[in-house]
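Student: Please help interpret what follows.
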Amino acid sequence: MYKQLIRPVLFKFDPEKIHHFTFSCLRIGQNLPFVKGIIKSSFEVSHPALEREVFGLKFKNPVGLAAGFDKDAKLYKELSALGFGFIEIGTLTPKPQPGNPKKRLFRLRADQAIINRMGFNNGGVEEAVERLKKNSDVLIGGNIGKNKVTPNEEAVEDYKICFDALFDYVDYFVVNVSSPNTPNLRALQDKEPLTLLLNTLMEKNALKEAPKPILLKIAPDLTDDQLLDIIDIVKETKIAGVIATNTTIARDGLTSDESLIKETGGLSGKPLTARSTEVIKFLAEKSNKAFPIIGVGGIHTAEDALEKLDAGADLVQLYTGFIYEGPKLIKDINKAIIARS
């Protein structure tokens, strides 16, 4: 029903405006009597074969929602009812920021893709914390970044602020240094600044009574040598794992209108399927599966998800595939995993 009836209507409108409209519909709809129960029974799948224990956390199923969809932790409960095993909120920054000028979100329908240059638009970490205080049963990842105005030399302080603010309210952390939409952010992926950043957070983490898993989200545009550096950094800093991958700045093989292809920003969706799987496979093989990997990028079918799991991912996340395929995709993936068990 989603692809035949709902999506054609939604795709007639501006992507960012319809995102906020959809949020409002989900919130209002699930507050109506019996609606949340109907939604959960329609999409949730429970089975022992779906349960995972990864970096010390227990997941009811391995299909999560990637960061960027619920940046400000406004809808994590309602989204969880669609069958997700976990929800990653953010990217959050210490101070609120509007992000980049609009228009900044574009659908490439012919390629089943999206280009975004949102620029870490969010209401600030403290605002999200107030919403997360109401959480009781949703497994939450906290994706953290730096404010646009913060120079890279001072970026560590921004990540520390977010880490401290979120610590009591998320189950794991994700350090985002791989978004292409904040100027110079990707420079923090270089070995020296990245090692410093992760070691600093791990030192703070070690002081906690119950440390939380810290993961690193990486770009799909890294070379093999840079990926080998990532493996070394994970080993050296002893972080919990890696999320592979973020959006790409590449535009290879696209068939959409030239004006869309020329838009700056990060590309997500179907064109990223093969590359993100390659990165997962490379990391898993070269590290001898030394750390957990969350696979994300171009998952539009159950088969796409299974390929990432077979390549070495322990969990998967959806974003663009969820927009194009609808919530049934979550159920399809979970059912395919059960069928193979």
